Amino acid sequence: MEQNELYPIFLKLHNLNVLIVGGGNVGLEKLSFLLKSSPNANVEVVAKEFHLEIKVLAEKHPSITLTKSKFKKKMLKKRHMVIACTDNLEVNKRVYNLARKRYLICNIADTPDLCDYYLGGIVTKGNVKIAISTNGKSPTTAKRLREFFEEVIPEDINQMVENLNEYRKTLKGNFEDKVRRMNEITSSLKNKE
Predict the structure, then answer these.
(1) Is the whole-model pTM more than 0.70?
(2) Mind spelling out the 3-state secondary structure of the chain?
């Protein structure tokens, strides 16, 4: 059976520099997805033309920069992460190859073989965030799972997280004692049969 070998991480995009190459519908989708989870993400979008909604997002988010230009190799300097989503596969491949030479992680829209990472489904309830991946096989399944988790995770889960954080600060003892105590308190979250 095939296994999902992706390693999930949660990036602080306000501390990183992201480049999106492409300003059309897919660029809008990628930018919107990033901003939904990280409204203060540092993102530069490079394109010859921009979808109107990308311009609107840039006005609402001061950390977004729009650069009206064709892609140039020098635009990869001081980047951490790159997304290419132009309607020209050759441009996207060039972005990918140049990014790889600089050890930048890169995502080429709708081209899984040219992706170091995928933008999966995300559920956010306050401090609780769940990422969902189908290993790039079925974005629709990830979307349905996201909708499911949004319904079943209680809205007040953030209050529980805040309360547990405050309680954790009061615990005395070594690390193992603290972990044991927190495990006891949160054991009711598991479904016991």
Answers:
(1) yes
(2) CCCCCCCCCCCCCCCCEEEEECCCHHHHHHHHHHHHHCCCCEEEEEECCCCHHHHHHHHHCCCEEEEECCCCHHHHCCCCEEEECCCCHHHHHHHHHHHHHCCCEEEECCCHHHECCCCCEEEEECCEEEEECCCCCCHHHHHHHHHHHHHHCCCCHHHHHHHHHHHHHHCCCCHHHHHHHHHHHHHHHCCCC
Per-residue pLDDT of the chain (193 residues; tens, 9 = 90+): 889 888 989 999 999 999 999 999 999 999 999 999 999 999 999 999 999 999 999 999 999 999 999 999 999 999 999 999 999 999 999 999 999 999 999 999 989 899 999 888 899 998 999 999 988 788 889 889 999 999 999 888 889 889 888 888 888 888 888 888 888 888 877 765 5
Q: What are phi and psi of 79, to 5 degrees?
A: -110, 155
Cβ-based neighbour number of residue 71 at 10 Å: 22
Of 146, 99, 102, 93, nearest in space to 124 by CA: 146
Pairs from 160-167 (Cβ < 8 Å, separation ≥ 24): 161/126, 161/127, 161/128, 162/126, 162/127
